[in-house]
Structure formats: structure tokens, C-alpha cells
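G.,

No rush on this.
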Amino acid sequence: MGALHYLSTFCTVSSTRGKTKSMQKVEIKVKMDCDGCERRVKNAVKHMKGVKSVEVNRKQSQVTVSGYVDPNKVLKRVKDTGKRAEFWPYIPYNIVHNPHLSQLYDKRAPAGFVRNVTVPVLNPTEERISYLFSDDNPNACSIM
């Protein structure tokens, strides 16, 4: 039985293709000023292999690509048009715990969005010390 199994490994057909990409939605921030910019970006991306749909929102400076694509290749293709591009850095305002932190606020963000950053969490000792000098503490004036 071992010899038969050994010989069967030579007879099996193995695929040399790479892994198939999963369906993805890639959001990119691209500065677009006119219809020509919008058309150039859209045409560059829609002819890529695996792209199912391309949506351009010039008002928000956002390009959304759906399909079986690599996000880094899409970003590179958009940058090759001569436009400054980056992955979409914003998240909706209502899912952020405290959207008024200085790291999150970005005046260039579209309405209803804040920047997607991780906010450092203070340990209990640092939190207690910072509370001593906080405006929320009614006894803070006596300490100062």
C-alpha cells in the first residue's frame, strides 16, 4: 500500500496557480479637482484585472474599488496617474468613543468622519495623576 501511495503522488495534477484573492472593497483618498482628474483615476483602475466596480466621489475625494484585487496594487495604480493618494484614513463619527480628541480631529475630513487612529489608553496610576490637574476635578484649584 505504501508503494501505491508513493506512485500516486507523481500522477496527481497539482495546480501551479497562486491563491485566489478574496472579494475586497478598497477605499482610497485621492485629491481630484476636475472631471478630467476623476476620469483619469477611474479609467486607470477600472481596467485592472479582477475589478468589478469603481465608484468615484469627487466631493469627498474618495475612490471605492470592489473586486478581487490587491489593495496595494490599486493604490500604486492610482499613484501612477500623478495624483497624491492614500488609503481612506477616516471612519464614521458615530462609532468613535470620544471623537473630540486632538488626534482624531481633522479639519480636512468629510462631514461626519474623523481620522482613524488608535488612542493610547492610560493606566490607572497615570489616570489618577492626570485627574488631579483636570478641569473636571472640583478640588484641582486647591492643589495648584
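When you get to it, here's the other one too:
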Amino acid sequence: MGKPVFSQRGSGEGERIRAVMGGGVNVWLRCLTLLTVVSLSACADLCGNDLVATTISPSSHRTAVVFERACGATTGHSTQLSVLSRSDALPNDPGNALVVDDRVRLDVRWVDDVTLEVRLPANAVTYKEQSRIGPVEVRYVR
């Protein structure tokens, strides 16, 4: 086996290699960076919320919104709860009060304007249980 032979400066093959590796590397890095940015921005909003129920507070100032959230094929559904101002639309965010694994039934009722009662199955697996959202106390009953 002989040693590899490299083209010397000025020969056609060596110039082509330099053209591809010299200026071309910069172009390839820019393309790769652009592709990465576009891919990440496309993945930023894979989750979606599907409204299940809305319960309005006695004074009509707030709503308790039960919804299901899914974030693509590799994650399961979850049942979630957000306490919002009546004028606010449900954002494409996780629930601010409750996040329960899987699809479960939640019974939600306002005790008064600042107390919300949430009934959930005894075996429900919760990832988030906030006891207060702003001035609203959230009570969980299993």
C-alpha cells in the first residue's frame, strides 16, 4: 500500500477541494443553523388544548376552565384546570391550577366567588395541585 497522494496547489483537483471546504463550509454552517432554528420554532407549539367545561364564578368575574391537553404522539393526554379572569381566553399553556395524568372527570363548582371546589377520582395521578390562584382558593376533594 502506498501513501496517499494529495494534489498540489494549482492543480484542478486541489482547487476543487479548497473551494468546497473553504467557502462551502461557511455556507453549510449557515444552512445548518437556519435549519435548526426553523425546526425548533416549528416544535415550539406542538401542544393543544381542547375545552371540556367552563364554570363561571357567582359574580361572573372569573371562570374555571377544564380542558384536555395533548402534546404530540409521544405524550399522553392530561386533564387540566385553569382559573382565569372572565375576559381571558384559554391560552395554549398548561393549567395554572391542576394537571392530572390521563383523561379523568373533574367536577368543578364555585362555593363562593373566591372558593373553588374540584372533585377528582381518588386514584387520579396529579402533577400539579395549586391551592391558590390569585385571590381564589382551590379545594381538592377525592
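Strands lie at 48-56, 62-70, 78-85, 98-101, 107-112, 115-119, 126-129, 132-133, 136-141. DSSP finds two helices and nine strands in the chain.

Enjoy the weekend,
O.
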